[in-house]
Amino acid sequence: MANEDWRTLKRDATRRRLTDAAYELFAAHGYDAVSVADIAEAADVSVPTFYAYFRTKEHVVLPEQDLSWIRTHLSRTPADLPLPERIRLGLHAIVGEIEEHARPESIRRWQLVHAEPALRRRAYDRERASADSLAEVLGVDLATPEGAADVVVLSACLSASTTSFLRWAETGGTRPLTELIDEAFAALRSI
Which of 157, 141, 147 is CA-nearest to residue 86? Predict the structure, then answer.
């Protein structure tokens, strides 16, 4: 057990070194000017080691989402609520954990996403990839006409979420993220 703990700590430290090195380089030289090799060198690891942790440079900023963590939060919302409300409440719970554990890193991440078109595309790709997984936990039956409509609603809610994070970054985190989410979902309801 102690050996596994040591390995986990080492993996976490390497991931943190790579992430910190990448952000320092992005700040100093601009996102587009930094290569994977630059990040690996600054973190004192090999390029293959970089790829053991991240698929691409974009994944340093926007790693694969922990869909099980997101599904857990969404599954805790009352099933009798309308789909957008379940998603909004699930987002509130997720944001609460982000605010408690990773606020500065999250702001830094989303500010870079806001500034870089390639990262905004990656954010929208993550949004689309999440839709199918979340449809299952929310009980959306993709084979029915109602399910198809629910997928559209789910996609709109995920887009509202991404927009909220981008607006939050634009304000430097000065506005509460939950407030921005509520505004985005209010805009959805007004359509």
Answer: 157
